[in-house]
Amino acid sequence: LWKNLAIPFYQRMIRENIVYIIVFLAIVFYMIPITFISALTTLDNLKRILPFLKSVVDKKALKSILEAYLPQLALLVFLAFLPTILMILSKAEGIPSESHAVRASSGKYFYFIAFNVFLGVTSGGTLFESLKEVEKKPNSIITLLGNSLPPNATFFISFVALKFFVGYGLELTRLVPLVIYHIKKRFLCKTEAEVQEAWAPGGFGYATRVPNDMLIITIALCYSVIAPMILPFALVYFLVGWFVLRNQALNVYVPSYESNGRMWPHMHTRILAALFISQVTMIG
């Protein structure tokens, strides 16, 4: 990131603090649209808002599938727009290298999804309902977190299953990049070089892959005692991921930088954070 090399150190510190404040506010207040989407994507609300869908969603076979996967799918689509914003913010900090910016974006994304997707979905309702109790006794938040985990076990089992069924399926078929390529080719590309650039697979995407894997680790650790049924799903997720992503890394993606293994300490820190979250919830 050549343009960031000329930024003085004190400016980087100021930018870093500003970005941290923005990310913190985003983590805190992003729960509002996530809660709205979770409520909106229930079948009853969809039928009320879009009456013409009633005949479709009332079909027995389709209804069971939609009830199981629609909220999770809506959540995944909604979160798909977030990494780009976080990468822009990370580069705005003044970070001078691409690999460092990717790690910074990855860290922000992990804490975002850990608090908003995992803790938010798990305990959001409980915390809002018991807000007065939390204000009077802040220590009671641990108990609330522990009590709110079991009712959401089914949701997260479905979430993990959806991640490896749909996520790795899309990864192997590369349908999304194919659609994006044709859109770019049709409307944006003017020269042959631009067409080739649009067709290029790009890098491995550590900024999104690592946080999502860390989220699955967090979910598996927190629910390993309460709902052991989640462990086979998590195991399949990582086994399938090893085969799929190994193939993609060797045969599809083209790395644009080399960080000399600096991603591992970053991942290790997040695994420890996942362990800490699981221990706190187990105490409750």
Automatic annotation (TrEMBL):
Highest rank taxon of the organism: Eukaryota
Pfam families: RSN1_7TM
GO CC entries: plasma membrane
Single Gene Ontology MF annotation: calcium-activated cation channel activity
Location of the CSC1/OSCA1-like 7TM region domain: 17-284
Keywords of the record: Membrane, Transmembrane, Transmembrane helix
Record-annotated membrane-spanning stretches: 18-43, 64-89, 109-128, 149-170, 214-240
Name this protein carries in UniProt: Early-responsive to dehydration stress protein
Organism of this sequence: Picea abies
